[in-house]
From TrEMBL:
Entry protein name: Transcriptional regulator TetR C-terminal Proteobacteria type domain-containing protein
Signal peptide location: none
InterPro entries referenced in this protein's UniProt entry, alphabetically: Tet_transcr_reg_TetR-rel_C_sf, TetR_C_Proteobacteria
Domain Transcriptional regulator TetR C-terminal Proteobacteria type: 63-180
SUPFAM superfamilies the record matches: Tetracyclin repressor-like, C-terminal domain (SSF48498)
Native source organism of the sequence: Streptomyces katrae
Length: 183
């Protein structure tokens, strides 16, 4: 089957023979690679949040630019997301603490950084945010996640027009929730 750990390892640039010889437990190997790359993805997203939210000129346009930039790791870290797709399918068979560690070093860390930056935007009166962590989670759900889900973590890329429409719709929803005039 294509969804084997070997297939994933090959997609991630590891020779199948090496994987089989050195790591009888493929899932552990993939989790190890995933944990390493999760930290890199989170760091990349922290930099994105910082650069796009440091100065706001036009809230809607800047949030759209942030949403697009938040998707850049799908391209830049293709191997990582190949493993994410595989691990997600196998998640019920994996040790809970390993999954938790991956979530903590990757997605949760990125969300915390985004929350910190959104809080700073709110402090300038540009957003009305009571709970920054929740706002960050909502931004991710409304803006990049629609593209991530429809493209299966970048495996089946969408056209630019469709991506832009999804991002803009998500940003409009986010502003309806958190725009200062909406409360």
């Amino acid at each position: 089957g294509h969804c084997t750990a070997e297939a994933t390892a090959v997609e991630a640039g590891l020779a199948a023979a090496d994987v089989g010889r050195h790591f009888p437990d493929h899932e552990q190997l993939l989790l190890g690679v995933l944990l390493d790359s999760s930290a890199s993805v989170a760091a990349s997203l922290a930099a994105v949040a910082e650069s796009y939210l440091a100065e706001i000129h036009d809230l809607r346009e800047d949030l759209i630019a942030l949403g697009r930039a938040w998707l850049a790791p799908l391209e830049a870290f293709r191997e990582h997301f190949a493993i994410v797709r595989h691990i997600s399918a196998e998640v019920t068979h994996l040790p809970a603490e390993a999954v938790d560690k991956w979530q903590a070093t990757g997605p949760r860390q990125a969300r915390r950084e985004l929350a910190r930056r959104l809080q700073q935007v709110a402090a300038r009166g540009l957003l009305d945010i009571a709970d920054a962590d929740q706002a960050a989670e909502r931004f991710i759900l409304l803006v990049p996640s629609s593209v991530v889900q429809r493209s299966f973590h970048g495996a089946l890329p969408l056209g630019r027009v469709e991506e832009d429409a999804l991002i803009a719709d998500g940003v409009d929803d986010f502003i309806r929730l958190y725009g200062p005039a909406s409360r």
